[in-house]
Design goal:
The structure is a single chain. By secondary structure, this protein is an alpha/beta fold. The chain contains 12 helices and 18 strands. A hairpin with a 2-residue loop joins strand 17 and strand 18. The longest helix has 18 residues. The radius of gyration is 21 Å and the shape is globular.
Length: about 350
C-alpha cells in the first residue's frame, strides 16, 4: 500500500494534511517540496487555534471541500493511527474518495525519500553505517535496526542543521542554539529528554561533557552507540528530570518514542514506572558546574525548572527550553526562571525559550 499511496500523492494536485497538531507539523517539511500541499484540514473550524502553519492555511475539511471540490481533494491523515477510522468516516460522509492514512511505514518512507536528498546536498554520505556531519558522528538511520530510526533524520534536520549548515528549510520546532545561547567547546551540557541523542552528539562533537537524561529504556542502546561514536563524551542518565526525586509513571506515546511524557494525557496507550531526579540534587551529588541546559520533555519543562532553581540562581546556565506543549508554557516558564534568577535575559523564537545572563 505504501507505494500505491506514494503514487497517489505524486498524482494529486490538492493535498490536505488532516490534523494541525504535532504530527502534521513534523511531516510538513517532508511533503511540501515533493507534493502539491494546499493546507491543513481539521474536523471543526471552532477548534482552530492557528489560522496558518508555516504559511499553509488551516481550515475545516468541510470548507476545503466546498472550496476545492470534493473530486479534486486528496487527504493525508496526519494524526495518531488510533483516530484514523473516525477520520475516514468523516471524510467518506463528505464524499472524499482519495484518503491516505499516514501509517508508520508511509511516514518512514516519506522522511527517507526527502532526507536522502537534503542530507546528501550537504555532503553527508549515507552509504555506510555511520553518518558524519562536520565533527559529529551518528548512526545512519537507513542502516540502524530500530523501529524509530528514521526519526533521527527529522531531529537532526530540525535541531542541528541550522547550527551546522545555516539550513532552516526543514525546521518544525527549531534549533537549540540562538544568538547568545550557544554550546561552546568544553562545556558541561545537560540534555533533558535526550531521546536518540541528536543534540547530545552535537554537543559531544564540540568536546563537551554531556549528561543525557532519558528515562525510556529502549532508547539507551542508540544513546550508548552515539556516546561511543563521539569519544564517550555522553553520559546516559536513565532518569526523568522533574521537581522531585523519586518514582513516577511515564506515559508511553502510541506513534513515536519521542512523545513519552510525565504529565500529558492524550494519545498514550501504556505507562512505565521510572525514576525521577531534580537538576539541583543531581548537580549537588555529582559536584557539577553546568553551562547549558536543553529541555524537550513533553510538558514537564516547568517541573524541570522548578527542580533547578538553585542551579539557575547559583550557576546561571544557558537555557534552551521547548515552549509548545501547553498554551501557557511561555509565561509559566519565564516566571519560574526569573523567580530563580532575575538577571536572566529571555527571548522566544521558533517554539523555544532561550535564556542567558
Amino acid at each position: 500500500m505504501t507505494e500505491k499511496y506514494l503514487r497517489l500523492l505524486t498524482e494529486s494536485k490538492n493535498i490536505l494534511l488532516y490534523g494541525a497538531g504535532s504530527l502534521g507539523k513534523i511531516m510538513l517539511p517532508y511533503v511540501k517540496e515533493q507534493f502539491n500541499i494546499s493546507g491543513f484540514a481539521v474536523t471543526n473550524e471552532k477548534n482552530i487555534t492557528e489560522k496558518e502553519i508555516l504559511g499553509f492555511t488551516v481550515d475545516s475539511i468541510k470548507n476545503w471541500v466546498q472550496k476545492l471540490g470534493v473530486e479534486n481533494v486528496t487527504v493525508l491523515i496526519t494524526i495518531s493511527e488510533h483516530h484514523h477510522k473516525e477520520i475516514i468516516d468523516v471524510l467518506t460522509a463528505l464524499g472524499v474518495e482519495n484518503i491516505i492514512p499516514l501509517t508508520k511505514e508511509l511516514r518512514d518512507r516519506l522522511v527517507e525519500i526527502y532526507s536522502i536528498q537534503v542530507f546528501e546536498s550537504h555532503g553527508v554520505k549515507l552509504d555506510g553505517e555511520i553518518m558524519t556531519l562536520e565533527n559529529m558522528n551518528v548512526v545512519n538511520p537507513l542502516k540502524y535496526d530500530y523501529k524509530f530510526a528514521r526519526n533521527l533524520f527529522i531531529q537532526i534536520a530540525d535541531f542541528i542543521f541550522p547550527s551546522l549548515y545555516n539550513d532552516f528549510s526543514m525546521i518544525t520546532e527549531g534549533p537549540y542554539e540562538y544568538k547568545n545561547v550557544k554550546v561552546n567547546a568544553g562545556e558541561t551540557v545537560f540534555d533533558c529528554g535526550a531521546n536518540m541523542g541528536a543534540f547530545s552528539a552535537y554537543a559531544a562533537s564540540k568536546n563537551c561533557i554531556v549528561y543525557a537524561f532519558e528515562p525510556t529504556p529502549e532508547l539507551h542502546p542508540i544513546l550508548t552507540k552515539h556516546s561511543e561514536l563521539n569519544k564517550n563524551k555522553i553520559n546516559i542518565v536513565p532518569f526523568a528530570v522533574s521537581n522531585v526525586t523519586g518514582e513516577c509513571d511515564l506515559r508511553i506515546c502510541d506513534y513515536t518514542v519521542g512523545g513519552n511524557s510525565l504529565v500529558m494525557e492524550n494519545g498514550f496507550t501504556d505507562t512505565l514506572k521510572i525514576k525521577t531526579v531534580t537538576i539541583d540534587e543531581f548537580v549537588k551529588e555529582n559536584n557539577l558546574k553546568v553551562d547549558f541546559i536543553k529541555a524537550d520533555i513533553e510538558g514537564a519543562e516547568r517541573l524541570m525548572l522548578e527542580g533547578a532553581k538553585n542551579t539557575l540562581k547559583e550557576q546561571a546556565p544557558k537555557l534552551s527550553v521547548c515552549t509548545y506543549h501547553y498554551k501557557d508554557d511561555p509565561e509559566v516558564l519565564k516566571d519560574i526562571i526569573l523567580s530563580a534568577n532575575p538577571n536572566y535575559k529571555i527571548e522566544f523564537k521558533y517554539q523555544k525559550l532561550y535564556a542567558h545572563i
